[in-house]
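Cast an eye over this sequence plus tokens and walk me through the fold:

***
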Amino acid sequence: MIVNTQKMVSMTEANQNFSKVAKIANAEGSALVMRNNKPEYILLKINNNQNYEQADDAELETVSKKLIQQNMEAYKKLAE
């Protein structure tokens, strides 16, 4: 899996310059905020043309598990 380092920002930098994180999310669709060299938060750009509805816990758990599976290799590399 290829990790786009252009989307990664440290927690310190995010705290000091949130507009930079927002610009990355705007350009790339998302930004990854790192804490202690580990992924901590993801800022997602919401497309105003899409309709969003509230998901129940079961749906959220399913999506979370899928995302973890898809990105496991990146998480392992970042944990090294």
